[in-house]
Amino acid sequence: MLGESRAKVVTELLQELNESVSGSYVEEAPEVLIDDNPQFFSAFDLVIATQMREQDMVKLDSICRSTARATLLVVRSYGLVGYLRASLPEHRVVESKPDSQLDDLRLHAPWPELVAFAASFDLDSLDDVGHAHTPYVVLLLQAAERFRSAHGGRGPGSQSADRAAFRAILNSMRRTVDGVPLTEENFDEAVKAAFHISTPYAIPSEVRTLLDDEAASPGGLRPDSDDFWVLVAALRAFVDNEGAGTLPLEGSIPDMHATTDMYLRVQHLYREKAERDVAAVEAHVRQLLTRLGRPAGAIPHDTVRLYCRHARHLRCVRYRTLAEETGTGTARTASLASALIPGGSGYGGSELPPGCCDAALYVLLRAADRFHAQTGRYPGATGPEADPGEDVPLLRQAALQVLSEVGLGGGSNPRKSPDSSSGASGAALNEDLLFEMCRAGAAELHVVAAFMGGVAAQEAIKLLTRQFVPLAGTLIYNAMAATTTVLEL
């Protein structure tokens, strides 16, 4: 394969991994396609750009947002540094699948049917088997009623005294033999889940932000609005009306120590309430669609149900353009300055050795592109016999230009280590980092490229499937310190 086109060889090898997938290649420099044939990118939902210079990435970003309407994922491996950035106007996620989540049981403010179901149990008349297999939802609601009776109608709060008193009531409801409580797993579950009773319902802040978003407001909805925003508007109408400040019930319940019949009865109650909530949201959806001049059934029932089931975890990530991130007057100077301060969010923690500043590597990557624009090569890429340190002064000047353009100035003493520099720019101009960038000579090291390829693949799947939440900023991988940082720029 030596001497053959890399595009041709890579395409053939990739197709061998999965014969059912077809692929093609174009033997043309990306920069030429960007300048001469921007329509080329309209054929793709996702464009992954690798090892491209800043000025070309800015052009491609503009094309993907306007002409192609495609998602752009920029990936780069430069020596011991990796870079990744997604770019699109907004990315909407329904199934964000958080690592951990609380069960949506609504025990702090239960609906009437659930209250009536819990009240129908006479625990004292049950035999030992029935008592030990009563669902803990019933135990918690009955204990809450006993607490209210003993405290003037007030329910248990989150104070430690209330929590202790509520647990005492729960434990007093256990069966005993000669004064010794029996081992009842359902009561153990109830004690662990007691916080559901004392914790008031609250809409997650990220979802509240979505509900209040202009795109979901009566004035923001348009006939061509994405279904996501129509459904968010319907959810807001539900919260303001039928939900009385709550989102639709998810309808799922966790495992409980109970008989099959009892568990299915509890499950039926939750599913029935969830279906009523779905119906109410769907009615709002139809009203909104009609007002927008769209068919009332344009959004199917299954989609409405999906949104209701995942209402607590809806997300929308908006991305600034690369031109805004890198442009004079539009760059987020304060965010970058904060990240550049030793021990700050972009430094990876003050315990790292001097010079390991991830945000500084971001600045130096941009400076390397500036160096290339001025000289036609990357710093240090002068041959095996050359001294890479010879390019440090010119790279430092390029870094000063980048810092100046984003409003950070150049720093009074650029040779200071970042742990002793009083200014953010000192971290970016650390001598060790400058030399490392020159020593790398823009080499694409296998270990860094493999790591960044794995991260990029994961982010690409998130963007295409709209499951899980993708990175909302610029990721910098520092292989020298084995750290990653996401910069919100």
Automatic annotation (TrEMBL):
Single biological process term from Gene Ontology:
protein neddylation
Q: Where is this region: Disordered?
A: 406-425
| Name the UniProt record assigns to this protein | NEDD8-activating enzyme E1 regulatory subunit
**Family assignment from sequence similarity:** Belongs to the ubiquitin-activating E1 family. ULA1 subfamily.
Transmembrane domains' residue ranges: none
Pathway(s) annotated for this protein in UniProt: Protein modification; protein neddylation
Name the domain of life: Eukaryota
SUPFAM superfamilies (alphabetical): Activating enzymes of the ubiquitin-like proteins
Q: Does the keyword Heme apply?
A: no
Q: What does this chain do?
A: Regulatory subunit of the dimeric E1 enzyme. E1 activates RUB1/NEDD8 by first adenylating its C-terminal glycine residue with ATP, thereafter linking this residue to the side chain of the catalytic cysteine, yielding a RUB1-ECR1 thioester and free AMP. E1 finally transfers RUB1 to the catalytic cysteine of RCE1.
